[in-house]
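[Structure tokenization] protein backbone as discrete codes
[Encoding] learned vocabulary of local backbone shapes
[Protein] chain in single-letter code, fold in tokens
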Amino acid sequence: MATPTDSQEQLGHVVFITAAAAIGGFLFGYDSSVINGAVTGIQKHFAVGSVETGFVVAIALLGSAVGAWFAGGLADRFGRTKTMQAAALLFAVSSIGQMLPFAIWDLGFWRVLAGVAIGMASVIGPAYIAEVAPPAYRGRLGSFQQLAIVLGIAISQLINYFIGQLAGGDVNNQLWGLEAWQWMLGACLVPALIYLFCASVIPESPRFLVSVGKMARARKVLAEVEGDDADLDARLNEIQQSLKSERRARLSDLRGKALGLLPIVWVGILLSVFQQFVGINVIFYYSSSLWQSVGIDQSQSLLISVISAAINIVGTLIAISLVDRVGRKPLLLVGSAGMAISLATAAWAFSSAVGEGSDVKLPDPQGTIALIAANVFVLFFALSWGVVVWVLLGEMFPNHIRAAALSVAAAAQWVANWLITVSFPRMSEWNLSMTYLIYAIFAVLSFFFVTRFIRETKGRRLEDMG
């Protein structure tokens, strides 16, 4: 019989390997948002305009779609930890490449490679955590991935700020032989190497070990995470039976009469699209250049990005604490309403900008109002759509199509993310106020979409989804 001390040691071991796997989520957040502080530096260094800049920032998202598409197959063939190691190596190599580009297209290539690693991490981390976490702790341990992502975003902005300060507030200034923005992009090498080490020491998933016939090793891992007093033979048999009965869902299983797809699949796709079309990643990819475009200096704009990332963490913690208590749908509705109001407020404030080119300024109190509105938007997104969409996508589909439907919805999310990211520089030059008004309209539409089409999944078994 396990003693309380044994149980604490077992839980501590599970928390360690879960946190180690979630470093992939940290890198997901870090590498996707670190570009925020470097955008201005890249534009000046390579003398490129808004179209080229938007392309380089957004192209990583296309790599992410590729990485996510292949990650599952790689994990099934070579194992979860080996796939994590491959992602870590891609993060490391792409960080060095992004730090030392010789042309804008070269930087774009390394951004694509980083995107592949991001896509792999977005798939393999949650899968591994779900497979090693004991059922009693699966929900809380599963939230490590999202928490790691927002921590990665926050740390990237904090490091960007400190590097900018060391360089005298200008990211094009020289620092130890390179421009500051290059150090920002290269700093990802450190967490990438930590991820590589952790992925090399944590145990392989028992589910994968059973699938390749390594029963003794699978039993050992199960004993470590669930305790020696667990019925290990029954658990191994349960995994074996599950693997035998599973049939990998195909895209053809998603066909329906509604424009070629089942209605529930369209709901998942639109849920993913709305999450991106409110413009959240504009804040995490472009906020530094955004605030500079309305008269705030580089140093202060980098600090604002740090504050926004910290607010993102707070909102995520709120969502994690409420999602199982108040439900998914109420959080989404509150988030949509809050985002619509804050985005509309920001649009109004940006309409007051005066001047042209580099001399644009926001007068008071509109400048303060725009800053507050943008961060209120981040808070409402984080406590609702940021976390809840991923929870719903993992729950809302029937068992027999879950894997395929989730892949399609996730792909739609990456594409929507890319569209918003690549279009923002040109749209903001056209009319920043109207750009934010468009995002506000999508937030309003998301409220009515949730009201009409989203079913509450709180407290329902996955087997009951139909």
In short: The chain has two domains: 1-202, 252-466.
